[in-house]
UniProtKB/TrEMBL annotation:
DNA-binding region listed in the record: 45-64
Pfam family, one: TetR_N
The keyword Kinase belongs to this UniProt entry's keyword annotation: no
Keywords: DNA-binding, Transcription, Transcription regulation
Chain ranges of the HTH tetR-type domain: 22-82
Keyword Acetylation applies: no
Region spans: Disordered: 1-23
Name the UniProt record assigns to this protein: TetR/AcrR family transcriptional regulator
Entry GO MF terms: DNA-binding transcription factor activity; transcription cis-regulatory region binding
Native source organism of the sequence: Agrilutibacter terrestris
Length: 221
């Protein structure tokens, strides 16, 4: 007896080229991060990135379209490497302070990494107009801040925080975290990160943030 299910064509097997394509995409992103970091944006061509990744220029364009899109994707990939999946999801089993500490540690590890510092220098030394800066902002800092804002709104809804201006509070948190150490590293005035001082700075920042925005004790989770 014929049926709708029997008339449905069998699913096609997964294309054997898909894993290879994903591998090529990862290789292109790795090459882009290395080359943009070492040589800046203007002095790197799609041909050079293709050669470094071991793929054709056509493959690079088929994955990313243009150099600006590839630059943005490289910034996003770097953020995803350093900021673990679920970092900005509310975890009821952890205290609010512990979650903020985890976010703070991950954020500092990201912005103080050699790759991030190098890309930051590339962006800030570009002449106007700030097209490259806007690409960097949209692909990295803006996305991270928006994810943190969503986390804060969830905590407000849970009664743990009392924040009248979420966007401003998120900006304050990250600006406080950057602190003196990030500027010293960025300016080349320091070449080392003191782990104990970094941890003390993260804890002090989180405690200051909570003093400003934690809800009344009866509403804490």
């Amino acid at each position: 007896m014929s049926s709708a299910s029997s008339r449905t064509p069998a699913p096609k097997p997964a294309s054997p080229g898909r894993p290879k394509d994903l591998g090529k995409r990862a290789a292109i992103l790795d090459a882009a991060k290395r080359m943009f970091t070492a040589h800046g944006f203007e002095r790197v061509s799609m041909d050079q990135i293709a050669a470094d990744a071991g793929v054709s220029k056509l493959t690079v364009y088929s994955h990313f379209g243009d150099k600006e899109t590839l630059f943005s994707a490289a910034i996003s990939a770097k953020c995803e490497e350093q900021l673990a999946q679920g970092l900005f999801a509310v975890a009821p089993e952890s205290s609010l302070r512990e979650q903020l500490l985890g976010i703070g540690r991950a954020f500092l590890a990201l912005i103080n990494s050699e790759e991030s510092l190098a890309i930051h220098r590339v962006v800030t030394t570009q002449p106007p107009p700030a097209k490259l800066g806007q690409l960097f902002w949209d692909a990295g800092p803006r996305r991270v801040q928006e994810a943190f804002e969503a986390f804060l709104r969830d905590e407000i809804a849970a009664g743990a925080l009392d924040i009248p201006e979420v966007h401003r509070a998120a900006s304050q948190f990250f600006c406080m975290l950057k602190g003196e150490m990030h500027m010293l590293l960025l300016c080349g005035c320091s070449d080392r990160i003191d782990a104990a001082e970094t941890e003390a700075h993260v804890q002090a920042t989180v405690d200051m943030f909570l003093r400003a925005y934690q809800a009344a004790p009866a509403r804490k989770r």
